[in-house]
Amino acid sequence: MKVLIIYCHPSKESYTYQILEQLKESLINESIEFQISDLYQMDFQTDMTEKEYMREGLLNLDLSISTDVQKEQKKIENADCIIFLYPVWWSDCPAKLKGWFDRVYSVGYAYGYDGKGNEVQRMKNIKYGIALCTAGHPNKFLNEIGVAESMRNVMIDDRLGQRFNKKEMIILGGTLDREKVENEHSDIVKNIGRRIKKYCI
Ligand SMILES: Cc1cc2nc3c(=O)[nH]c(=O)nc-3n(C[C@H](O)[C@H](O)[C@H](O)COP(=O)(O)O)c2cc1C
User: Fold this and answer.
1) What is the CB < 6 Å shell around ligand 1?
2) Looking at ligand 1, which atom is closest to the CA of residue 90?
3) Which atom number of ligand 1 is nearest to the Cα of residue 88?
4) For the chain, does the N or the C end have fewer beta carbons within 10 angstroms?
5) If we measure between CA atoms, which residue out of 132, 140, 188 comes closest to residue 160?
6) Over the chain, what is the mean pLDDT?
């Protein structure tokens, strides 16, 4: 069983980094193999180039796919579970992670049509996907203002979509008052390894 963590935060001083460390511990405790794509550390290119647009936007599948994108697609093909770990910035993931989807979810790989109206997807079906995000606002507030629902619609229903068999969004909210929430967050994160075993066997 292999887990791929797509991690997106620029600083090791952050709360989100602390959560990454707890997540790693949870996977190690369950003897689960994992690989991390640390998007900032890799300096992962976020912007789609014009050449890439010629392929993605104009559906020219004969054009080549960039090497860094191919590497990410290979990691996906080796994974049974993918965890996206990021802070909520302006009610969504950081732009760098959005750029990962823009480029790695290439046409003919993560989506596409064969010209006869049939959907084409080469990307393997992933058993379990988790969007794990930290947020300054408490969950109750994010639910009340509809942001939790909109994040779920975009991240879970669209970006993970039918490519994932089981999927869920875990919002670790209320980080503006860290002391109040960190024990609760730790308990949730500690349990992730066990949940992966349950859904990936
Ligand atoms: C640019 C930026 C935008 C943010 N936007 C939101 C937001 O829309 N909603 C929210 O609840 N928190 C927001 N926050 C707070 C972060 O979600 C919070 O800082 C993070 O979850 C935990 O902090 P960390 O950066 O130490 O990991 C934002 C923070 C930054 C830096």
Assistant:
1) 9, 14-16, 87-91, 134-137, 175
2) 8
3) 17
4) C
5) 132
6) 96
